[in-house]
Amino acid sequence: MSRTLRLLITGGGTGGHTYPALTTLSAIQRRQVPHDVLWVGTAGGLEARITAEHGIPFKAITTGKLRRRPNLKELGTNIADVFRIPVGVCQAIGHAARYLPDVVLSTGGYVAVPIGVAAKLIRRPLVMHEQTTVVGLANRILARLATRIALSHESSLAYLPASARKKAVVTGNPVRPELLQGNRAAAYDLFGLTFEVPLIYVTGGAQGSKQINTLIAEILPRLLPHAQVVHQCGPAWIEQMRAVEVPADLADRYHPVPYVGGELADLFAAADVVIARSGAGTVSELTAIGRPSVLIPLIPTGGDEQRKNAAYLASAGAARALLEPHPTGEQLLAELMPLLADPGLRQAMGQAAAKLGRVDAADALCDLLLETARPQTA
């Protein structure tokens, strides 16, 4: 680099939009590329907390979400958001014009649209990244404004406007590099696990999932003779899950925990099967580490993206998926038992998952940013 790269990042609201941007920024830092960064998001979004924790300069703007099928309860909010959106665009133009970035990285969420419009108006290149197999409404809007489009999955091309497809490249979805360096033995030591039966890691996200927790509680007595379980159930559920009745001689095979933090990489390395939702981040992590899974998508989500993510992995032989809105414990057991009984099947599914993963996604997106930045930074 002949001079300092000025990078403006936008995206957030959820971890699925926030962490890919943070991971890509870490890739730039690892390369020791001289750079300045400004993150533009919403004051109430996850990105505001994450940027504060990492000392990243942050500016907040107002934004709104236009719901394509608002119900009566959302009608008032939808009307209010119509007026918030132009305010956010004006704020975004102000921040972008003062900062004058060499390149803008957008990782999605409705906060990204005003910055995308601002980038177009001040003639700054925009790299848009899509995490899910389905391109959301905000990114379908931005696709028409973007200089380059980074996709996590080849199948996402079909969801782009035809005129935008020539600008697209598949980079994968950046995952934290530490998740690829787990220590299986460390997880076994931490939780006091046994080598007698396979390990299932269950997660419904940081807050837990009522649906997943209820299913696990239902099947535990029949599951534990064949497996041991580490279950991230969420802080609000921990006492209830600890009280689940299981056979006394198998009680030491069930390990409910409120939250999994730094030990996640070790658990991923140790897990023979993962039971999880199918959000973009989870799918990217499972494919990057090459783990077989049983996916229980959150329904509904915007564009039904979780169910489509799960179906995508299942069609590739990388996962089993419960695609019904209200799966039963019997259905979950029916998907799990063949996996627990057949190490070869687990291995084949793990290999299929790994073929879909991109462990170099952060570096690929970093390369795209540097290639797209204004010429004087190259």
Please tag this protein with its features.
seven-stranded parallel sheet; 378 residues; six-stranded parallel sheet; Rossmann fold; elongated; 2 domains; 14 helices; alpha/beta; EC 2.4.1.227
Briefly say what this structure is.
With 378 residues, the protein is α/β, with parallel strands linked by helices. 43% of the residues lie in helices and 15% in strands.
Layout of secondary structure:
Layout: E1 5-10, H1 15-30, E2 35-41, H2 46-54, E3 58-60, H3 72-99, E4 103-106, H4 112-121, E5 126-130, H5 137-143, E6 148-151, E7 168-170, H6 184-191, E8 199-203, H7 210-223, E9 228-232, H8 238-242, E10 254-257, H9 264-270, E11 273-276, H10 280-289, E12 293-295, H11 305-315, E13 319-321, H12 329-341, H13 343-356, H14 361-372
Parallel strand pairs: 1-2, 1-4, 2-3, 4-5, 5-6, 6-7, 8-9, 8-11, 9-10, 11-12, 12-13
Q: What does this 3D model show about the protein?
A:
There is one protein chain. With 378 residues, this protein is α/β, with parallel strands linked by helices. It has two domains: 186 residues, Glycogen Phosphorylase B (Rossmann fold, 3-Layer(aba) Sandwich); 179 residues, 3-Layer(aba) Sandwich (Rossmann fold), CATH 3.40.50.2000. 43% of the residues lie in helices and 15% in strands. It contains 14 helices and 13 strands. The strands form two sheets. Strands 3-2-1-4-5-6-7 form a seven-stranded parallel beta sheet, with helices on both faces. A six-stranded parallel beta sheet has the order 10-9-8-11-12-13, sandwiched between helices. Helix 11 links the parallel strand 12 and strand 13. Helix 7 crosses helix 12. It is elongated and about 65 Å long. It starts with a strand and ends in a 6-residue tail after the last helix. The model has no long low-confidence stretch (mean pLDDT 92).
